[in-house]
Write a structure and sequence with these properties.
mainly beta; six-stranded antiparallel sheet; globular
Length: 516
């Protein structure tokens, strides 16, 4: 089992994004394509709110198949092992563009990198060879990239600018200027950055007509390494590839309290062309049955779309397969997802019975919560938590919050036993009494007290690690006596934390409830 202790710090840093001044064009004389260089470099630190950086990293890590079909005027994957590649030119200053022994998304052996880690403030630039012909309207520049800033408590970013040669005007123009944070695919580090296969992104840029070559320049700030791979220029050809990325079913859904059910699904466009009118099909079979469909009007290149299916009403206790599918496309291996759901009398849970692949805990005293919705009136009697290993002797308790973030119920404090580990432990809500909720949201979870031993942290519960996490489901709060408003805060979905927390309900003179 993958074990992960999440050391979460609640803080708010201001974001300072200092705009850079890109050189708009560079002169050329005759056919020699001479390039004007500059000694201008940014200096100083940039402080970025970590939550925003996590969102940037998650957004940048969008990829599609490496073997794109197209009419390519330039197609360079650096796999020849020669650097620079044949007919490419490294020019000016200390040589910082060099061969790298990693490849985009781990597919291959080589790429190129600019080593700002060396901190030479180089003016080195690298030119592609001339394209096989000039670009036409609609052509794209596509490349894979990886970047992390240097971070020793202060964060130092390097910027990247790409130029193209206009064969008619006989001059180089700036095509695009990226601030370093715009290309960040991994967290900052004070170590030499070498990307893992999942720490890459892909950029797709419109390139003007009559371009015949490009070059890359890093505006260095003594930061860290830029990696570039799989550079293509031309017209993308072919169909499309969409995928059913995530199906957020419910592991348990109660007949008396959980209908109708809402089933969210995340669909992704893995190609650089937009997808129009994509049909997504839902089929539930087994003890309970349902069929439904939804047409997505538009998904942009490398973008995602969340579909929300409504109306699943189980009528019998038992297991059902929830299957979501999309029509055949260029890769049918990612077109179907299935989730097993158990209809039962009184228990609601997000994760399935196979959960979990990770565990999570706090430094200090806070809680982990799942958010549910009650339709009608019901009573929250127990909270069940799947406890991880290696936490025997720690003190925890079950907790319930109302929609306002006020603590409305808790269980007695409990010292975890070795026999509780890797099982669901039930915490009965008694203080002040089981909470009654009517037509409203509520939160159930585990309260983690301070570490009872000689260490500083422990994992208080298990979870299913999957990015992005289920929407509007996984929260945390501070601890206080019942009756205290502590608020509930949603974890960023890019943290990938999906908790194994069950809400056990009972009737309280009302009708029925549902989970969303």
């Amino acid at each position: 089992m993958k074990s992960l202790i999440s050391l979460v710090f609640i803080c708010a840093l201001s974001i300072i994004l200092t705009a850079g001044n890109a050189v708009s064009q560079q002169n050329s004389v005759g056919n020699s394509k001479k390039v004007k260089t500059s000694s201008f470099h940014k200096k100083g630190k940039k402080i970025i709110d970590q939550k925003i950086i996590n969102e940037i990293i998650s957004d940048n890590q969008k990829s599609f198949k490496k073997n794109l079909r197209g009419t390519w005027l330039l197609d360079e994957d650096f796999e020849s092992g020669n650097f620079p590649p044949i007919n490419w030119i490294n020019l000016n200053g200390s040589t910082e563009w060099e061969q790298a022994y990693v490849s985009g998304y781990g597919s291959g052996n080589y790429s190129m990198l600019y080593s700002s880690w060396q901190c030479n403030y180089s003016d080195n630039i690298i030119f592609t060879k001339d394209f096989t012909s000039n670009t036409q309207s609609g052509d794209k520049l596509i490349f894979d990239y990886a970047y992390a800033p240097y971070d020793d408590g202060n964060t130092y970013y390097d910027d990247l600018e790409i130029y193209y040669y206009d064969a008619v005007d006989e001059i180089y123009y700036s095509l695009v200027y990226y601030e370093g944070w715009e290309l960040q695919t991994a967290n900052g580090t004070d170590q030499y950055f070498q990307p893992q296969s999942n720490e890459w992104g892909t950029k797709i840029i419109d390139i003007p007509e009559n371009a015949s070559s490009i070059y890359f320049k890093v505006w260095e700030n003594c930061g860290n390494n830029y990696y570039v791979d799989n550079i293509r220029v031309g017209a993308y050809a072919g169909g499309y590839d969409a995928s059913v990325e995530i199906l957020w079913g419910k592991g348990k859904i109660p007949l008396s309290y959980g209908v109708p059910d809402k089933i969210p699904v995340l669909i992704k466009n893995l190609t650089i062309n937009p997808i129009n009118n994509l049909m997504v099909n839902l089929n539930i079979s087994g003890t309970n049955n349902l069929s439904d469909s939804f047409e997505i009007p538009y998904i942009g290149p490398l973008d995602t779309f969340q579909v929300d299916f409504l109306g699943f009403t189980p009528v019998l206790n038992g297991f059902s397969d929830i299957t979501v599918s999309i029509p055949a496309d260029d890769d049918n291996g990612n077109n179907v997802k299935t989730f097993i759901s158990e209809a039962n009398s009184n228990t609601r849970r997000y994760v399935d019975s196979n959960c979990c692949n990770s565990s999570v805990g706090w430094i200090g005293q806070l809680s982990f919560l799942n958010k549910y919705y009650m339709s009608g009136t019901g009573q929250i009697r127990n909270v069940n938590i799947k406890l991880p290993g290696d936490n025997a002797g720690q003190i925890v308790y079950g907790i319930v919050l109302n929609s306002s973030g006020t603590i409305v119920g808790k269980s007695p404090h409990y010292k975890i036993k070795a026999s509780d580990q890797n099982t669901y432990k039930s915490f009965q809500i008694t203080d002040p009494k089981p909470f009654i909720v009517t037509n409203d949201h509520y939160y159930v979870g585990i309260a983690q007290t301070e570490y009872a031993g000689n260490d500083f942290a422990y994992a208080s519960q298990q979870m299913y690690y999957e990015i992005p996490a289920r929407p509007d489901a996984n929260y945390y709060s501070y601890l206080a006596p019942p009756g205290t408003n502590v608020n509930a805060y949603e974890f960023p979905r890019e943290y990938g934390q999906n908790y194994a927390i069950e809400s056990v309900m009972g009737k309280s003179g009302g009708s029925r409830c549902r989970s969303i």
